[in-house]
Amino acid sequence: VKDAEANAEADKKRREAVTAKNDADGLVHSTEKALAEHGSKVAETERRAIEDAVSDLKEALKGDDAESI
Questions:
Q1: Is 53 part of a structural domain of the chain?
Q2: pLDDT band for position 53 (50/70/90)?
Q3: At what angle do helices 44-61 and 2-38 cross, to 10 degrees?
Q4: What does pTM read for this prediction?
Q5: Is residue 67 part of a domain?
Q6: How many CB atoms lie within 10 A of CB 69?
């Protein structure tokens, strides 16, 4: 029981990181798909800002920190 209590916080952080990664992966995929389909309808500066944000998110996904994701 003590081990379970001691590991509960670590388990919670791992679950949060996995959930954040899954959500972020879905967001990256849907954003890239939307840009591929409708990117020509978006202003160049906005498209670049979106692409930069997606790139930053992909970089954050390489780690396990839910906060940075």
A1: yes
A2: very high
A3: 150
A4: 0.80
A5: no
A6: 20
